[in-house]
Structures are given as C-alpha cells and as structure tokens.
C-alpha cells in the first residue's frame, strides 16, 4: 500500500520528530523512496520536523542530521522551512474538538500551523507548474 500511494503522489511529506530514534524509524522509508524515485524521478519529497524542542541540542541540529541521513542514501529530499514545535495547545486543542488555530488563534502553535500551511500550498503549486 505504501509503495502504491507513493507512486501515485506528486508530493510526499514525511513527518518526523528530530530525535535519532525517529530518524531511524523514518529511514525505513528510504528503500521504498529509492525504488519510487527510479519510476518517478520528478516526485518531490519533503521532510517535516515536528514536535521539535528548540531548547535542546537535538532540536537545533535536526535539519543537518536529517539532510545527512537522506543524502547518504541518494534521496533528493528537501526540508520544510516551517517547523512545528512541541507546544501545549497541540495537546489541549483536540479535547475541545477544535484545531489549534481555532483553539488558540494567537498562539505560536497556530502561527506555526499557518506558516506550514502556506509553505505546503506554495510547494504544491510549484510542483504543478
């Protein structure tokens, strides 16, 4: 199923937390991505760093670590400029039946989601031009 979905996609977003164990879990996708890249070389693959902690070393070096991991496998991947940090409203919003943008519209969490949304739309439009 994963391979079929990837073959059908023009645009792939791989969310991952910026920790070594999460990068390892993400690396399970690498053989499938390499296989799909031979059939769909025009496909764009993006990594989204989420649940990031800005205050620790792992969070600060996450982009470099992720780029290194994928480059070593020959995968052409980009990392979103937008990052989603581990913020309290992300945990609280679902209990209210709302998105974080509805629940805490002026929060940094909402700001990050809106930034990510704009970036995803921009990248999707670029793929289809």
Could you give the topology of this structure?
Blueprint: H1 2-8, E1 11-16, H2 20-27, H3 30-39, E2 44-49, H4 57-60, H5 62-72, E3 77-79, H6 88-92, H7 100-103, H8 108-127
Helix pairs in contact: 1-3
Mind explaining what this structure looks like?
By secondary structure, the chain is mainly alpha-helical. The protein has 2 domains: 1-86; 87-129, no CATH class. It has helices spanning 2-8, 20-27, 30-39, 57-60, 62-72, 88-92, 100-103, 108-127, and strands spanning 11-16, 44-49, 77-79. The chain has a 3-stranded parallel sheet, covered by helices on one side. α1 (2-8) runs parallel beside α3.
Q: What is the succession of H and E elements?
A: HEHHEHHEHHH
Count of individual beta strands: 3
Distance between the termini: 28 Å
Strand order of the largest sheet: 1-2-3
Radius of gyration over all CA atoms, rounded: 16 Å
Helix content: 40-55%
Q: What is the oligomeric state here? A: single chain
